[in-house]
Structures are given as C-alpha cells and as structure tokens.
Amino acid sequence: MAILDYSKDTSKSITIRFHSQEHGPEGQPLYYHTPEEPAVIRGYVEFTTIKETKASDITLTFEARAESKWSEEHGGSHISFHHITRLQEQTWDVKLNRTNKTITPGVTRYEFEVQLDPDLPPTIEGRRGWFHYRFKAHMQRDFPFRNMAVKQLVWVYSSSLRELEEHVPKVYKLVWNDILPVTCTLPSDVLYQGQVVPLTIRIDPFLENSIHKDQDLIITSAVVKLKEYTVLREPRMLDKKRGEKKVVFVLPVMEGWPVTSQGFERTVLAELPGARDLAASIETVPVTKAHLLKLIMMVRVGSMGEEARELRVEMGVRITSPRPEHIRGTVPEYPALPPPYQASSSDDDDTMPPEFSRSDTAQSQFQPDVKDAGSP
User: Fold this and answer.
1) Beta-carbon contacts of residue 338 (< 8 Å; ≥ 6 apart)
2) Gene3D superfamilies this protein is in (predicted)?
3) H helices within 61-175, ranges in order?
4) Per-residue pLDDT band at 50 (split at 50, 70, 90)
5) Taking the model in full, what pTM does it have?
6) What is the end-to-end Cα distance of the chain in Å, rounded?
7) What is the full DSSP assignment across 237-254?
C-alpha cells in the first residue's frame, strides 16, 4: 500500500515491491523480527520508461521512525507540534540505464535488502503517534514539480519473546481495605497481541482481626479491562507533552462467582486484541505507550445490607508482537493455572462499567492480523 505515489506520468513509472508472502493488518508486506532471527527485508525498485527522458538516478531510502503529531486550539491560540526520531536509516543510489544525461527507454530493476537492528519496536499505528518502517524512492527531474516519488510501508512484528523461553509468572497482591487478601496471577508481565491470557484470581478469607471474619463475600459484578496510555512529546518545544488514554479491551465476568467465607480461586481467560486494535508498548522520544490490565469488582459482605464497594487490582504489563509460531499455531499456550511469583499494587480513578450478561471466556471479536498471499 503506497502512502504517497507521485510515481507515474504518461510515459514512466516507479514501483517498490517486496518478497514477502504474508501481509500485515493494514495490507502491507509483513516481516517477523525476533531476538534470535532479525528481520531481513528484501525487495526491488523498478523504473519503467517508454521514451527517452532527462532525470537524475533514483535515491532509495529506508527509515525506522517514531513520529508524534499534535494540533489543538487552546485559549484562543493554536498549539501544534510534529517530531520525528529515526532509529535506523539506510540509503541506496539506483543507477539507471542512460546515455550521457538521457535515460534510455526500458525497465531498470534494482534489488535491495536491509537487516533490522536488534530491539527495534513493532509497527504501531495511531492518529497522533506511530512507529513506521518506510521505504521511499525519489527521482529529481529538470523541474521540481515534475519530480517523481513513491513511499511504501512494511509491517514488522518485532517480538521481545525468545524461542522456548520459560516465562516467569507475575503475581499482583493487595489487602483490600486492610481486611481481604487478593492475589492475581498472570503467566508473565510480557503479553503478545492476540494472546489468550489466563488470569488467575485468588481471594482469601477475611483476616483474623476483621469484624467480617467468617462472613460470606458476595461479588455482584466484575470486569477485566486493558487500558493503553500514550504520551506524545516534542523535545524542541521545552519538552512539550500531551497524554491520551483509551480502553482497548473489556471482558465483563458477571456469573460464576461463589458465595463463601472460605476464599476461592478462579481462572478467567481473556483474548487480547491483535495489532490492528492493540498497539505494542513502546518508549521513544516522540511517542511512549504503556499498558495496565485491571480487574475491577463490586463486592459486599453477605450479612450486611450495605451497598457493594469497589475492589480493584492493577497489573502493569508490556505488550509485544507475536512470534511467527504464535501466528502459525505451532507453540503451546500457557498453562491455565500459573504459580505465584511476586507482588505489586496500585490505584486508579476508573469507575465501574455497567453490568453485562457475558461468560468469563472472551470470544474473538477481532479481525485476523495476518493474511497470506492468497487471502482476499
């Protein structure tokens, strides 16, 4: 998919093609970038002319670039900024068939390849902040308005997960209102787009020194939520920043909660969105994205007529790209009951969402992120 195409006139054209057989969420050629096997992007530039023409050779550039762009009206004034940071660059000179300064009719094809540097982020799309892998072919002609250029994006799944890596379970603990121990366990604090994540919830009995000891705990509603936090930055303007946040995933869990004074444990399966709907975690100068997975419950004590109160557990996670075997279904999923590891806790100002009648296993609502060459 060309994002800019001034590549053709009545007698000549420039195209960029890639040797990938798969396509990413937005239809671009797809490449996998892993710690063990860095992605190598291969393709070619093709220039075609049916008559003699005077022009420069073609300059082909590659950029892995983070970009932020913000514009707003504030207090009667307009505020905007636009910042780009390039994490990898490469340039090629594409020599054309010519006699002296005149390019002869015919087709010139130039093969290129670039190996991505380690630890580059995945492709990220967004309205105001993004990370792109971009190629541009540019030809200068006698008059600037007749210059020719074409730009093409490729989609890169850059995963921080290693092959056959043993994942360390991540445990988040708190004592709600100093009376009720709560533990949430994830298979890891690094999750990948499209993953089915088992979240194990354990609620122990009320503490011995609580007035609610030996009383039933009633959970009236619960929801699992994934929230994405974006910071856009322009360091040239006194490090001006703008923040955004959005909910990218909600799983209501309204049924199946036991009423007991003895405590219980339950595992909820949540299918995360793919890369089209869920950006990876990233930290660059122009754009930063971070994620919190949240369990929000409304609870009350069985012997009391008081209203239900909010119980919340926040779980800081990092989102990465899937590995090729995750996409192709050749790796086993995590076990349903990960063991405990360590603890953390935090607060937030979200309110409880409205109740829904849904099961505790998320059904796939998201479009596939990878298409093979034969897919429509």
Assistant:
1) 169, 185, 186, 187, 198, 200
2) 2.60.40.640
3) none
4) confident
5) 0.82
6) 14
7) TTTEEEEEEEEEEEEE--
Tokens 């990413």 belong to residue: 24
Token duo for residue 353: 């969402």
Pairing of strands 53-74, 371-372: unpaired
Query: What distances in angstroms separate CA 188 from CA 181, 184, 225, one per listed residue?
Result: 21, 12, 17
The answer to whether 46 and 109 are in contact (CB under 8 A) is yes
Position 126 confidence tier, pLDDT thresholds 50, 70, 90: confident
Binning pLDDT at 50, 70 and 90, where does residue 144 land?
low
The alpha carbon dihedral of 354, 360, 365, 369 has a sign of: positive
Q: How far, rounded to the nearest angstrom, does the alpha carbon of residue 218 sit from its chain's CA centroid?
A: 36
Q: If you compute the radius of gyration of the chain from its CA atoms, what whole number of angstroms results? A: 26
Q: Give the residue among 121, 132, 139, 143 at the shortest CA–CA distance from 67.
A: 132
CB 180 within 8 A of CB 171: no
Q: Which residues are CB-contacts of 114 (< 8 A; sequence separation ≥ 6)?
A: 40, 41, 62, 90
Q: How high is the pLDDT of residue 335?
A: 46
Q: Are 79 and 72 in contact (CB under 8 A)?
A: yes
Give the number of other CB atoms < 10 A from CB of residue 82.
12
- The DSSP symbol for 75 reads T
Q: Tell me the β-bridge partners of 186.
A: 170
pLDDT 10s digits, 108-119: 999 999 999 999
Strands 240-252 and 217-234: antiparallel
pLDDT of residue 148: 86
What's the sign of the alpha-carbon dihedral 329, 332, 336, 338? Answer: negative
Report d(CA 267, CA 200) in Å as an integer. Answer: 4
Helix residue spans in 144-214 (DSSP H)? none
Using CA atoms, how far apart are residues 224 and 201, in angstroms rounded to an integer? 11
pLDDT at 344: 30
pLDDT-derived band at 143 (thresholds 50, 70, 90) equals low
Distance CA 133, CA 66 (A): 9
d(CA 160, CA 167): 12
CB 261 within 8 Å of CB 216: yes
